Structures are given as C-alpha cells and as structure tokens.
Amino acid sequence: MEMQNLTKGRTGGINLTCGMSGSHDFIFTLVPIVYAFNFVIGIIGNSMVVAVIYRYMKLKTVANIFVLNLAVSDLTFLVTLPMWATFAATGYQWPFGGFLCKTAAGLVMFNLYTSIFFLTALSIDRYLAIVHPVRSRRFRTVAYARITCVMIWLSASLLSVPIALTRDVHYIENPKTVVCGVLHPTDENIKRLDNLLLAISLMKSLLGFLIPFVIIITCYCLIGRALLKVKHIQKSSGSRDDEVLYMLAATVLAFFLCWAPHQVFHFMQMLTQFVLVDNCTVLEIIDTAMPFTICIAYFNSCVNPIVYSFVGRNFRKNLLRLLRCSPRGIARPHPSISSKMSALSFRASEALSLTVKNNVSCDAK
C-alpha cells in the first residue's frame, strides 16, 4: 500500500490528510476474489509446467530451462497472494507483522523482475534461434542458459532488496488500522528516503517494464520480418508458420496487457508523490485504480503457462501422460517447447541460403 500525504500524530501514529484514500467496500470484496482466482489457477498451471518439463521434456534445451525458471518464479510470488488477499479483505489491515510485510513486498518486486527478465531472455533466444540459427549455435547452450538464469535470479534479488527495506507496518490513527506500506519519512531522513523511493520507482518503470518491453518488441519484429521473408520465398509454408506467429503475438500482447495499466498508474502515483500533489480527488482516483491494475499485473503469473506451454501440442500430450501417471520410459522422445520454432529456423536458413546461391549463380552467368 502506497501511503501519501501523511502527518505524524502525537502518539506516534500516522494521520492521513486525505483519509484512507481508495478504501471502498467493493474493492475489499472484489480484489480478494481475484487474488484467490489468480492463486488457484497460477499454482495449478505453473506446477504443471514444472512437473511436465522436469518429468518428460527434460532440461536439455534453452527454452525449457527459461520456461521452467519462469514457472518457479511465478510460484515463488503466488505463495504471497493469500496474505495480500487477507490484507484487502480486512480493509487494509495487516495482521502478519513487519517481517512478512517486508518479505511479501520484496517477493512481489522479485517476481516482477524475474518474470520480465526471463521473458526477455526467452525472446532473445527465439530471435537468435530463428534469425541466426547457425551463428548462434555456440551461444545457445544449456550451460549458457543456466548461467543466464543465475544472473537473472541474482539481479532480481538485488533489485528487490530496496523494496523490502522501504516497507514496514504502520499504525494509522484516523481511522485506526495497521497497514503494510512505504516507510514514512522523518525530518532527519526525508531527503534521503525521497531519493531512494524515486530511484526504486524509476527502476521499476525502466528495468521492470520499458526497457524489457522495447527489447521484446524489437526481437519479435525482427523475427516477424524473417518469417515473412521465408514465407515469401517458400510459398508452400503453411499453418505451422502462422501458429508460430500467433504464439509470438500472444506473448507480446499478454506481456503488455498485464503490465501496462499498472505501470501507467504507478508513473502517475510517482508524479503525485514527488510533485507533492495535495488534490485528494486525484489521489482517490489513483488509489482506487491501483488495486485493479495490480490484479491485472498479477494475472500475468497465470497467463505465462498458457502462452508458453499450453498452446504446444507436445506439452498437452505430456500433460495427459502426467495426469494418467504414465511412466517416463518407452515413449518416443518429444520435441521441446521450441521445436516448431527450431524447425522453422532450419527452413528459414535453408530458404535464405538457397536464395543467396541462386543470386550468385545468376551473377556468374
């Protein structure tokens, strides 16, 4: 919970100059229901992804490693949703203490960074596999993928530490309640804390959304151009190419739709925080919209398994095998999640090389 326009009370509590902005009964009812839905669907979907990849598809491809780590990241975040659901259902009352307040807030940002970083890494891997299948072969190895995952986990951990340090339990005097929110500045640390909160907000907007989104869009635009070029050269290319294009489009669309609303209102909230907007109406609009944008952002943890795994035929086959408790062995090996893209990469490079050869032969004549 972002607390703004606060003043210290005589008894050590905090008074809100605009009251409990954004506190409405329909929020306290609807948001916990959405959180519960996200929790159930997310836990089931991501657990299936982990089980299927670990049991049947193995960690022998770069794509499988990234998708598995993405699912683990989502599971790590989803375990905090019951606490946030309780927080919303009780009218922003935090009964879990200061340690869990810091931990839950840190895990939210940890999931934000790990999810987007893994999506970006997966997008770069798809770009290299499709557009530069031969030259990128020595870089697209399991060892490099695991090193990348370690770097992502460490980077996300470092970026989420300031979030945890600036969150704590606060006692609100009017109305009397206990919330989990941003630290309230004192006369001694107001400038330092404001600078820290500004840096955290900028990192969340830039590293947590804008820069990865630009990289993802760039990768998929280059992929789309390469696929269209191949399709123009090979008139026989059929629905498999279209399915790959649809999958890529769904990835970008899901990423944008889930995170863009929250990032927009987060930016507006950052402006009101540092431009010192005292208009309670503006703060009311932002604080009322924020819980719903957060719900949409959290839904990304449910969408990821669908976009990256459930659309694949081989995943569905392996999922049915898992549900039937089929043994691992005596089954023909299944391609990885990225098998269609890899096959398309080969056809693309083959078609492009044939075009180059034809042009060279024409010049020789």
Could you describe the 3D structure shown?
The chain is mainly alpha-helical and 365 residues long. The protein has a single domain, classed as Rhodopsin 7-helix transmembrane proteins (Rhopdopsin 7-helix transmembrane proteins). The protein has eleven helices and four strands, in the order E-E-H-H-H-H-H-E-E-H-H-H-H-H-H. A four-stranded mixed β-sheet has the order 1-2-3-4. Helix 1 runs antiparallel to helix 2, helix 4 packs parallel to helix 6 (190-233) and helix 7 (239-274) packs antiparallel against helix 9. The protein is globular, with a radius of gyration of 24 Å. Residues 1-12, 236-241 and 329-365 have low confidence and may be disordered.
Structural class: mainly alpha
Question: Which band does the percent of strand residues land in?
Answer: 5-15%
Provide the spatial order of strands within the biggest beta sheet.
1-2-3-4
How confident overall, as mean pLDDT?
77
Q: How many separate helices?
A: 11
CATH structural architecture: Up-down Bundle
Indicate the CATH topology: Rhopdopsin 7-helix transmembrane proteins
